[in-house]
Description:
Chain A is mostly helical. Chain A has helices at 14-40, 75-102, 105-110, 119-130, 143-166, 169-174, 176-181, 185-212, 215-224, and strands spanning 43-44, 58-59.
Amino acid sequence: MAGTPEKPGKRHALGTRIWHWVNALSVIILFMSGLNISNGHRRLYWGDWGFAPEHAWLTVPRFPDWATIPGYYSLAAARDWHVLFAWVFAVGLLVFMISAIRNGHFRRDLFTRLAEWRPANIWRDIRAHLKLKFEHEGAKFNFLQKLAYSKVIFLLLPLMIFSGMVMSPGMEAAWPWLTELFGGRQSARSIHFICAWLLFAFFVVHILLVLLSGPARQLADMITGGREDEAA
Amino acid sequence: MKRRNFLVGIGAAFLAGCKEIGDSKWFEALVDTAEGWHRGIHRSLGVGRIPMAPEYERADISPFFRGNGSLTVDTDEYRAALAAGFPDWRLEVTGMVDTPLSLSLEDIRDLPQRTQITRHDCVEGWSAIGEWTGPQLSDILAMAGVQEGAQFAVFTCADNLNGQDYYESCDMDDAMHPQTIVAHMLNGEVLPEINGAPLRLRLERQLGYKHPKYLTGVRLVASLDDIAGGKGGYWEDRGGYQWYAGI
Lengths: 232, 247
């Protein structure tokens, strides 16, 4: 997964492709084992503590077995999957970030320019999406893509990692400031849950857009790398 | 319709694959290895200081401290002892110690006390904050004299859950930790029945199932292999929970 210098011309760098699939697998496993863990205690709270219905801000539905890993209620087995793939997820993200800084992917493709924030540009982009027009010249990603991908990579995924770490009492003893940053363990647990569903929402939109914009080629490009001159 | 069947098929295959992997020996070995990494990382991230669980103010204490798991010891002896204030309750300190001890509640109350307001996190996900008072386990173990080669402290309990006696264990690092106390009070009162009267171990850097209630003994051992199911605790033997519950 090293950021080996890529010959120019590939649409997706090798590091990006490897991370994409490793990350996809680990996020799916984390999400589904997370739903199993959620079934262990289906209430969410703010602050440091909470255990009873009157402390809760949300009672979560019970997630069906077909949506969970393992496919039956087992807090122990779900936690095994969850904390194991948390390593794959976190280390994968770190290595990807280092490689994307080194090969310029973040700077070139993901950071928005000031000019892109002009309302006219944003509006044009929204209209193009609504008309399901995905051809765009120049930059690899349009404004909304940059916004979505960068929010996921720099905000949601790190938030998942850090809010997850806060929930570990052993970790908390080492880094108590992290818990305070999140406003308490139960707040971190709520944030973990909210971010998980925001990621799910991203996942749905992402899959939908891939399906609408030539799924066979999109999929092939994310495996072989594709060619730079292909727009999308 | 075909595409839908295809997707359902992929989903089912994925879940079946997960089950296959989850049941395999190598997956179990991998999970156990990760458990060791977590413990090592948690301990080493505190560089230069002992990692301590956060302690709170009185104002943060939960109005009621939830009881979970065993809520009593279902024997006539226990009920009689509870009514009488546990005059004959003993904490036996045995195993790899120079001088085995048999401490009464009075002995335990006479030792130097530590009071700590800490948060209790259940593996299920909920938390409660309470103020616990009792002697440090390290003081008790120092009285008994820890022998070389002792690797684990095993905690025996009076409660029987689903036909098996509850027990737990921790490494010596946790056993000697300043916040590891044998609590006989909760929120300034005698420890309530649902919370483990008369004695409950507090192991603050780990999840709730590592805080055994109705404590009757502490035994120092070199290995957990020959104790009950060999995994170091009731839930570890029975439900497959991880022995290191710092995560």
